[in-house]
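URGENT: need a sanity check before tomorrow's submission.

F., can you look over the HAD family hydrolase record below? I want to be sure the sequence and structure line up before it goes out.
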Amino acid sequence: MPLPKLIATDLDGTLLDRQGRLSERNQKALQTAREHGILTLAVTARPPRAVHRVPGLTAVLDGALCSTGSIRFDPVTQTAELRHAIPLALARELHRQLRIALPDADFAVETGQALRIQGEYFRGLRLTDPWIPVTADEDLIDTSDPVVGLLVHDTASTGPAMQEATAHIALPGVHLWGWGRYPEIECTAAGAEKGATLAAWCAERGIGAEDVIAFGDMPNDVSMLAWAGRSYAMEGAHADAAAAATGHAEPAAEDGVAKTIEALLQR
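Structure tokens as predicted:
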């Protein structure tokens, strides 16, 4: 079986451990792949700053598709390019409907540079994140900043309950992503979807789906796993991700990505 031209991997729950760290083994596997001429690309819900802050990660990446494909990030030049954002009027209507459906939830807007936070949960999430507090009476959507993503968290709820409560929300131009049982929903522009943005990135470099290996574990990875010629869902992955993948890898906590890459390079 020929070597791929690209390894595309999700980060949290896939390449990184539960503390968001890159293991030495995973780092070495990606570096070895690059030494074999294979490109490496992170495809993640994280914004660029949250990719950059993982020790040792950007050194073994050729690029990153951040915020579920909304932003392209170049780890060499440390530059980011916004590709997809939710139109402001649509973001306001989405926020209005979500507040009705989930009255106890906290909200945050990801601008690509910072978080605009409405509620207490997101304040303590990452103390290193730049964030702007917004009261319940203020407009969460600031006309001076793009809406890369709208995040919704309800600590007292569950992922399935939140998804059921918002199932009726079907606004053209926006997509709502669930995280399994975790009580959070991420909303992105409809064009911000891992499979499509990965395909576009590859097309610009003359790379076909048959030359791509992808790793993931959550519903927002499904399109990427389905598009790639070879794909691996991590052990314990969401059922939708597992069904979309052509193969399965050991858990992130056991360096499943590294083990798969090592086996591939030894053939």
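My own read: The longest strand covers residues 182-189. Residues 88-189 form a domain with the Hypothetical Protein, Haloacid Dehalogenase-like Hydrolase; Chain: A; domain 2 fold (CATH 3.30.1240.10). If you see anything odd, call me.
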